[in-house]
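2.7 Reproducibility. Because tokenized structures are sensitive to small changes in the input, we list the exact sequence used for Lysosomal cobalamin transport escort protein LMBD1, including any N-terminal residues retained from the expression construct. No trimming or masking was applied before prediction.
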Amino acid sequence: MQSPRRYLAKTSGQRLMAAGLKLILPVILAFCWVYIRKFQSRQESEVVSTITAICALAVALISSALLPVDIFLVSFMKYPDGTYKEWAANNVTRGQIEDTVLYGYYTLYSIILFCVFLWIPFVYFYYEERDDDNVNKCSQVKNALKYTVGFAIVCVVLLLIGAFVPLEAPPGQNSTQWEKVQYLFEELGSSHGLPALSFSISTLTLIGMLAVITYTAYGMSVLPLNLIKGTRSVAYERLENTEDIDDVEHQIEKLKSKCIDGRPLSSRDRHNLQELEGKLQVLQRRGRHLEVAERNCCTKVGSALRPFKIILGVFFILVALLFTVALFISNLDKALHSAGIRSGFIIFGTNLTNPLNELLLALQPVFPLDYILITVITMYFVLTSMAGIRNMGIWFFWIRLYKIRPKRTRPQALLFLCMILLLIVLHTSYMIYSLAPQYVMYGSQKYLVQSPTTGPASGNATSGTTRICDADAPEDQCTVTRSYLFLHKFWFFSTIYYFGNWAFIGAFLVGLAVSCCRGKKSVIEGEVEADDSDLSDDEYVH
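Resulting structure tokens (single pass, no recycling of outputs):
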């Protein structure tokens, strides 16, 4: 039976987590509501799709907080001197806490699985059916369910594959390394009865890796450079737009003058006239938007905050470069010191100096700076992913499906946006592990190393030295985070993630070069497009 003192110590961490969740949850929900409402089209807004998008985005942000919580819990079990706290001295107690964290991962990841394969597809196809004329509610639901069954079948197939896929390590590898790997697998273990769910989540994480390479890598370059460059002058853009209007009108008058005497225009001239008239409409709409932007107080406030934007942009680009260097060093460490490609490039601890990992370890003595930093890193990936999707739009290979624009984004695009963010969040944990492997594996844990005391008067006395937990630590002295075990349950996924990190570095460098070569954005970037209708101005220009 636990003493009252141990019980209070044990529950203090739980109370701290509960208080943090009560504080963070309303903030997340408020942010999701504002973000979705900012981009949502006023003409095509629909209650079901709005609620779905807000909830899916909230699930993505809440799931991104799992890793900092996991690291905090394993670190909270020990004192700074490397000894376990009274309530965590028992292996059974530690096992219960570790299982609770693991089941927390599976619970939230199961919700993501439900959103990706059932909820979001159903709402998407339900709204698509609404575009057809003379379709009642029952037919909408029926048709949406019919299409959603295909996603459900894919989910079932993944669960079945995960239930029977072998977890044993491939033969012919370094025995010492594989003894450690087998120990970790047994600890996470099939005894929990959830390998099928783990395989499905890992498959979605693989898709999330592609989204990270596409959107997050580009967002990490375009977001800071847009802040540094700023936007073009509204007055200059209006003057330039007026000159373009005059030039197009002059060309139209020149073409129309050919048929003053009643002669019809040639097919080539008629085609050119139609193009010029379409271009004139776009320029006139652009002029109306520029006029609104010039009167908008937000534009004036943005100009006043220009120095702060430059400082923030420089900070973001330095962070992006730090992440890229840390990821390169981590991947190089795996290439040089891991057990090989068929082991998933698993390494224990770090062999090369990783700047981000060292920074997190250096912040450990000052509570809670290291937890704040790991939380900021997590949110940085989410925000840069949002920026990447916002600037690129939603693509399927070379086909652009949807644009993400303020107050003019279709409900289907918002659902795609939230689904992509859900997949990105799944891969974020592996990205952060790659950036700071030792810290993500052990947190701020330390352990005692007993060594004999030298000297004639010491006798058989021993002294304890505190060390940061690493691969050389005894198994019963350092607790591995559940996130690390979850990421390495299937070695072949880890291998793919490893090569995905190299692709991410390449995509970031390409995106950085493209962003540097591009000029300043227009103050109404993305608001006026040639394929927009004139009616779309009604929801923006007042």
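The mean pLDDT is 77.
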